[in-house]
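Worked Example 4.2. Consider the chain below.
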Amino acid sequence: MDSSVHLLFFIAFAVLAIVALVFGHLAAKRRREAMRAWAQTRGHQFSQLKDRTLDNRFPAFGQLRKGDNRYGYNIVSGQIAAERDLLAFDYHYETHSTDSKGRRQTHHHHFSAVILETGLPMQHLFIRPENFFDKVTEFFGVDDIDFESSEFSRKFHVKASSKKWAFDVIHARTIEFLLGHPEFTLEFDTRHAIAYRGKRLAPQDLDQAIAAIQGILDRLPDYVVKQQCEMMTSTGAR
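Applying the procedure from the previous section yields the following structure tokens:
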């Protein structure tokens, strides 16, 4: 291969790299403006600055602790119904692998999430769509929590601090709601809940993610709310 062919390959590679950078920049700008518009129409605040503290602020949420070089961006903050504090954001983290020649490769991962303050003490609860690997692990005796609704048990993988807590929160009305709502991975710690999928969400999907959390909280039975409020009073929690 002569020098002119090498030069043509170099020029073609350089052009493709520049085109990729331009398209990446334009896509990031469109995403940023879409998130800003979504925030403004709802009276929320928007920041395009990176926030590298989310993994430490919400340590119970393992999705925020994957990989390294972790940060949130396109961050929306505000309050929604029932005076619940809201954070909605895009999130980035990196993982690494080594190719057959021993060269280290970096992989960039992006997804969107919403976090709501629950307004009362909760216990750990994890709900996500069932996948193929869950079927495999069930074969080896690693199981999740099953419910009276066989359809719900087939569609969702549930873990909780206790089965009683799972059954208290995920009762018949909540099961009906979740079966009829777009699916997200949902996780509750003691004071917050997160909803996400493994990709960036369109603004309208952020509304659905918020609604998924709200739908569970708004359907908590009165005895559970009373029990958790009494717990908050007795421990002096704020």
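The chain has two domains: 1-41, 45-235. Residues 1-41 form one domain. Compare this with Example 4.1 before moving on.
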